[in-house]
Amino acid sequence: MAVRQHSEPYLWLLFSAGGVLSAMLLPVMVLLFGIAIPLGWIPVPTYEHMLGVLGNPITRLVLFGLCFLSLFHWAHRFRHTLHDALGIKGGFMAALCYGAAAVGSVVAAYLLWQVG
Amino acid sequence: MAQSVQSEYQQRVLPPRVSTFWWLEKGSYLVFILRELSCVFVGWFVVYLLMLVRAVIQGDASYQAFMAWSATTPILLLNIVSFLFLVFHAVTFFDAAPQAMVVKLGPNKVPGSLILAGHYAGWAAASALVIWLVVGA
Question: Least CB-packed of B43, B50, B72, B135 within 10 Å?
Fold first, then answer.
């Protein structure tokens, strides 16, 4: 219990930072890669272009920060929503949420490292 | 009489009973839950983005296959819903920023409207940069 109370401000900080970064970057990304390109409003970027953009170390660093913080934003909010809306609480659920975010962050780091 | 004493006792000793579906009782409660649920779409799109990165790593054929998959009806519908939730998330998160952030410039507090405008300007600039990187550059 003491550990959880101690970690709460740090988890909230990750939630907040992830909230801002995902709000700034994700709507435009889902608009492009989830709607505009699939519907043909914009031509599909060439493979070479995508490789060039993703190959840039700054792009990969920003994408890693986006994935890491957004996943912890999800974990924190989802955990509290389970509690508020459905009354589901407990250390196991918290461990599951933050654990999934941590695993996702490692996968993101591994994949973004592979592009180079 | 006996009933009112009992209900007073219940109120003091027992936690009030809340229905599991309390968030369906009022519009503002539903908006709150929908705002909280936007995090699921944040999570989904990170997974989608990482699948795109993996497809690019695997080569041109995988990339083209991912793009074809992204145009299938279920994925397209999921992403349209995701877009609506992500815009809702952005607007509600930025709207909370003036309350969450107290910025001082010398002795004066920066007004909330300026903090809000700053967030929207940042959103516009970040979106323009992403569009330029993907489409224009």
Answer: B72
